[in-house]
Specification:
This protein is an alpha/beta fold. It contains 16 helices and 17 strands. A hairpin with an 8-residue loop joins β12 (248-254) and β13.
Length: 431
């Protein structure tokens, strides 16, 4: 196997794919495949190696959300970078500098400051973690453009991802079309006999079923069959903007506490054209309504809607707790099929959008357990259990329920008839 070595650093590639990563010099390198294949590890190693090889270089580590980057690839980088090389570091800004003048930057696409850095500075290498979270226009116009630092001779953009839906731009534009300036490497899960991963991981891996098993274990680009809503993250997740003061606001809530039933509260702004924008959401486990209530109240005051009623689930104790903290509530209309029809109509007509920074706080327990930790991540799992309309897969749908409560009940409040709404086409139900 290929051994990479400098005076301060030694790395041995344990798979042929890792060796190929270290040797590849194409402008774009895509590392994709199932979980625990060593994609992030070898990419970070290559970033450190290139940073050492070419003085005064600049290496970017990028992810859609900076808080996620800090807990994953950036943490791995700080563990792998030899301490003897470091001359300066700023943990808050996520910038390290080593002896030869090379800088390593951690950038989140949810940070305006970091996006401005991409626009104004250049690098020799950009490594993008969870690249399926990044819209194609961000990759083309911001990330790839920035990999052009003139003072170094080698430039490369590395994308890391697990498989997603086959309609995703990475699969369509990179894997299927195979552009000449791209190397795509499918990275298999590390074999157990290598002794790198614990036996318990392989037991867990073998227990996976359904969509998650096909993607995370088998490395397949597959979509869920029978998706209820035609949600497209590249279209329906957008950059935030200043919301006009005269737009209507809707706040909706689904009570919860455990990993399998998270607490979800969503803040929506509705434009004059009837477009819904989720600009804030709480998606959290392990906290009581008593803990959530003052936080919700403070945001209601901040938005100037302190006297407005929250549309919520019917739990009497939960509603009483909210009321005690000065948060007025209205019981939601919970008829599932009617609510789905309202949501479907809005999404199909491109009238539902999520700000990409809407999440108040990431629930680390949900992330560690590889469960959705914000509403947008639920759409892939929100499917028909059978060909019968009302028969749903009723798990991982806390955000879906919350959204349905808000949209369906709001239609009732403004007096629009459910009969006038477009129904979910049978072709979607029976596909």
């Amino acid at each position: 196997m290929l051994v990479f070595m400098t005076n301060d650093f030694v790395f041995t590639a344990v798979t042929p794919q890792q060796a190929q990563v270290l040797e590849d010099n194409n402008p774009t390198l895509l590392l994709w495949g199932p979980g625990r294949s060593g994609k992030s590890h070898v990419a970070v190693v290559k970033g450190i190696a290139i940073g050492q090889k070419f003085p005064n270089n600049r290496i970017y580590f990028i992810r859609r959300k900076k808080v996620d980057l800090r807990a994953t690839m950036w943490l791995k980088f700080t563990e792998l970078l030899p301490q003897s090389l470091i001359t300066k570091k700023d943990e808050h800004s996520m910038i390290y500098k080593i002896k030869n003048g090379t800088e390593f930057w951690g950038l989140g696409l949810d940070s305006i400051e970091d996006v401005n850095k991409l626009a104004s500075a250049e690098c020799g290498m950009a490594i993008v973690e969870e690249a399926t979270e990044v819209p194609q226009n961000y990759f083309d116009e911001k990330i790839k453009r920035s990999v052009s630092l003139p003072r170094v001779p080698f430039h490369q953009t590395i994308l890391l991802c697990n498989p997603g839906a086959p309609a995703h731009w990475i699969y369509q534009e990179l894997i299927l079309k195979k552009p000449k300036d791209l190397t795509a490497i499918k990275m298999p899960t590390m074999l157990e006999e290598l002794g790198i991963l614990p036996h318990s991981f392989y037991i867990w891996l073998s227990s996976l079923t359904g969509l998650f098993a096909k993607r995370y274990r088998d490395g397949q680009w597959v979509g869920a069959e029978g998706l209820v809503y035609s949600f497209n993250p590249e279209k329906h997740i957008i950059n935030p903007f200043l919301i006009p003061e005269d737009w209507k606001r809707v706040v909706c809530l689904d009570f919860g506490f455990s990993l399998l039933h998270a607490f979800c509260c969503q803040w929506w702004a509705i434009s004059s054209e009837g477009k819904w924008y989720c600009y804030r959401q709480i998606y959290m486990t392990g906290k009581t309504v008593e803990e959530h209530a003052p936080i919700i109240r403070s945001y209601m005051i901040e938005d100037g809607i302190a006297k407005q009623e929250i549309i919520c689930d019917h739990d009497a104790d939960g509603r009483a707790t909210l009321n005690r903290h000065g948060v007025k509530t209205r019981p939601a209309i919970k008829k599932r099929l009617e609510g789905q029809q309202v949501c479907y109509n809005l999404i199909a007509n491109n009238k539902v959008f999520f700000f990409n920074n809407s999440l108040v706080e990431v629930d680390i327990d949900l992330r560690i357990n590889k469960l959705p930790y914000q509403t947008e991540q639920e759409f892939t799992y929100y499917v028909w259990a059978t060909k019968e309309k009302e028969d749903m897969v009723r798990k991982l749908d806390h955000g879906m329920d919350c959204m349905r409560y808000g949209m369906r009940t709001s239609i009732h409040i403004i007096g629009e008839s459910i009969d006038t709404l477009q129904y979910i086409p049978k072709v979607l139900i029976h596909s």
